[in-house]
Design brief:
This protein is an alpha/beta fold and 226 residues long. The protein has a five-stranded parallel β-sheet with strand order 2-1-3-4-5, with helices on both faces. It has a four-stranded antiparallel β-sheet with strand order 6-7-8-9, with helices on one face. The radius of gyration is 20 Å and the shape is elongated. The relative contact order is 0.09.
């Protein structure tokens, strides 16, 4: 089930950019142009995360934030032009989980959203993700190709899990760096190629068909050979 993001923002231009960009990233997006409408929408369809402008007509963002927080623990990212330290403190004290100042870079917004969603995800809920004959158990940290168990390092396991959660989707190098090594990773330029090679060696050790493919100039994709 896709994460559902509610955006409460009175600038229609910013609202359209956020709706289009977040939808492209795979999120379900609902929008509201004022605080009262946002609260109604949050009650009718509880969101996974809220992006909230501070300067709203009617109820301002602080009041909306306080009411959302009183109603539950939904992650709230406050998006505003108010950029002083005092403003940030006031926003966080009102119940916001994070605070991003306009103008902002969309990639940074996405990274903050992912971080908030990771923190909000319940612990202790292991699951099995699979594609073709490849299976990964997040609880036991076991990986199987068919009946054959594959031993992976922690980072190899994390990278493979990323591929398994996005089958047939081309993952760019930037996305992989962000999700596996951290948003501001500045390490070796070929580290992704090295770890993809490790995964291929281990998942193809018994001459199984390749599942992790290179998309030249873009990144990598988990798919069956055509």
């Amino acid at each position: 089930m896709r994460e559902h993001i509610l955006v409460i923002e009175d600038d229609e231009g910013i609202l359209q950019v956020l709706q289009r960009g977040l939808s492209y990233e795979g999120y379900s997006v609902e929008t509201a142009l004022d605080g009262r409408d946002g609260l109604v929408r949050a009650r009718l369809r509880p969101p996974t995360l809220v992006i909230l402008d501070w300067m709203l007509p009617g109820l301002d963002g602080l009041e909306v934030c306080q009411r959302l927080r009183a109603a539950g623990n939904v992650p709230i990212l406050m998006l505003t032009a108010k950029d002083t330290v005092a403003d940030r403190v006031e926003g966080l004290d009102a119940g916001a989980d994070d605070y991003l100042v306009k103008p902002f870079e969309f990639d940074e917004l996405l990274a903050r959203i992912r971080a908030l969603l990771r923190r909000a995800k319940p612990e202790g809920a292991p699951e099995v993700v699979a594609f073709a004959d490849l299976k990964l158990d997040t609880g036991t940290h076991q990986v199987f190709r068919g009946e054959r168990e594959i031993e992976l390092t922690a980072k190899e396991f994390e990278l493979l899990e990323l591929f398994l959660r996005h089958p047939r989707q081309v993952l760019t190098r930037d996305v992989i760096y962000d999700r596996v090594w951290g948003y501001d990773f500045g390490g070796e330029s070929n580290i992704i190629e090295v770890y993809v090679r490790y995964l291929r060696q281990k998942t193809e050790e018994a001459q199984e068909p390749r599942l992790i493919h290179t998309v030249r100039g873009v990144g990598y994709v988990l798919r069956e050979e055509s």
